[in-house]
Model the fold of this input.
Amino acid sequence: MTHGLFVFYVLLLAALLFYPVSQWIWVLSVRRLQRKLNRELSQQEITGQRRRAWVIATFICPVFSVLFNLSTVGMPQ
Done:
């Protein structure tokens, strides 16, 4: 496998995982904050949690994608 194809697979998997992972992180974060504050969150707080989830997913998805592709396809030659 070439380096270009490996990078393509990494980027493809990271892009496909980004939306569901960010949604999952966002839902868990909003529920945790609602339990912690014991009230419904305002729209501004929900938007802040969504932004936070996007940032976290931006780091998690590429790292997972690289590790997954290394374990399944191996290091490119």
The chain has one domain: 3-72. Residues 3-72 form one domain. Helices lie at 3-37, 43-72. The chain has a mean pLDDT of 95.
